[in-house]
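From the pipeline queue, job 12 of 40. The input is one protein chain; the requested action is below.

Action: predict structure.
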Amino acid sequence: MRLLFWESTAACNLRCVHCRRLDAGDSSGEELTTDQARRLIDSAAELGRPIFVFSGGEPLLRGDWEALAAHARARDLPAALATNGTLIDDALAGRVAAAGFSRVSVSLDAPEAKAHDAFRGVSGAFDAAIGGIKALRRADVAVQINTTVFAGNADRLDAMYALAEGLGAVALHLFVLVPVGCGLELAEGEQITPAQCEQTLKWLCRRQAAGGLELRATCAPMYYRVAAQWLDNSPAAAGADRLRAGLRSRGCLAGIAVIFVSHTGDVFPCGYLPVKCGSVLDDDLREIWTGSPLLGELRNFDLLAGKCGRCEFKAVCGGCRARAFASTDEWLAPDPLCPYEPRSRQ
């Protein structure tokens, strides 16, 4: 296991139009208690020390986040924080820095207020997030910018890169929209198309080859196919070694190197694939990780169906299992966002 995302709370102060949840509000009566969360951290520490991501909702709305971050440190477990940034001022940034998070990711979905606020559902969200990022940087906290890529911003990635660079971020991660939860209600014109996704991933390859900020694609396993094709066509091009160094992973990591634990303790392959594979209230996380039949299926590439199953890039890509499930109710179905046609027709 490489990454464990914990939805520490479902409570949130924003109303994002693409949220994987259909509701947000006070979840304090349902979420794991402090002791239950400590046991989750203990279990994670015994599974190869994955990066333990405090996520949400808005994790800073949970009252015991500092105590739990301290428990992660005590277990020598690397921890990160995924926040919308809007609640962070200098005082809170100092507390975040003292908590010892290896990195704090802040969501920014447009290079200016109007578009970001519309996507996040609250006026003033952009200015508050920018203020939070600046406060974190003053506290010497490493900041990663997370950008959800959809039809409305797919052609604005240069501006997003410049914004992230100007804010002193160490990384820009692109999250290609997966239509789940509220995202299912987005108008068709707001959904990213296969052609836009392909162009986004080619842009990513070019920017990575040029050097600069750490760049990564999430929920876009086709990146590994696009990057491999780019290298096949230009193996000796400037920056090829930088791009090649980024191909040491695999595309879809749901249930393979990533796991998601909800605020109620339910376990899912990732935060966008709503198929439960256990609960940490009933079983030890190790038992779920090693014994879940669902996770076993996701790890067997030979079970992939349709063109994903016959694709020559399936070992490095695998398609997004969450997006396949969202469109077909079958997690082994082809990823509908991939335009590539495999060489094999059988």
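Job complete. The longest strand covers residues 143-149.
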